[in-house]
Write a structure and sequence with these properties.
Strand content: over 45%
Order of helices and strands: EEEEEEEEEE
Largest sheet: 4 strands, antiparallel
Distance between the termini: 26 Å
Oligomer: single chain
Number of helices: 0
Helix content: under 10%
Structural class: mainly beta
């Protein structure tokens, strides 16, 4: 569930494949349907946080060492996706939000770096 309690975010995997699908449900609307959101099974999408219509994900889509993207659920088509943290030379191993800021941890020379 998102921190604001509005959405249930569902991640679906298949076996040990590192790719997944993402669905969500608006919990503020009674009997709201589950929305198929990221269904191509083309990459790993790790939900980070949201700010109502914007959902942030760490993904390896077109970024083998990962990047962060923002998707507006009211305009979910790929051409509307925004890159927030680009793919880098280091592996983006973990992302979180703290005090309304995104923090990122990278694996650099076999050690973690914030």
């Amino acid at each position: 569930m998102t921190d604001d309690g509005r959405y249930l975010v569902i991640t679906a995997t298949q076996g040990t494949d590192p790719k997944n699908r993402v669905l969500y449900q608006d919990l503020q609307t009674p009997d709201s349907p589950v929305v198929e959101f990221l269904m191509d099974f083309d990459a790993d999408y790790t939900f980070i946080d949201n700010d109502w219509p914007l959902f942030w994900f760490r993904t390896n889509l077109k970024a083998p060492r990962a990047r962060v993207i923002a998707i507006d659920i009211t305009k979910p088509h790929r051409e509307n996706w925004k890159e927030i943290i680009p793919h880098a030379a280091e592996t983006l191993s973990y992302v979180a939000t703290v005090n309304n800021q995104i923090i990122a941890m990278y694996l650099t020379d076999a050690r973690s770096k914030l």
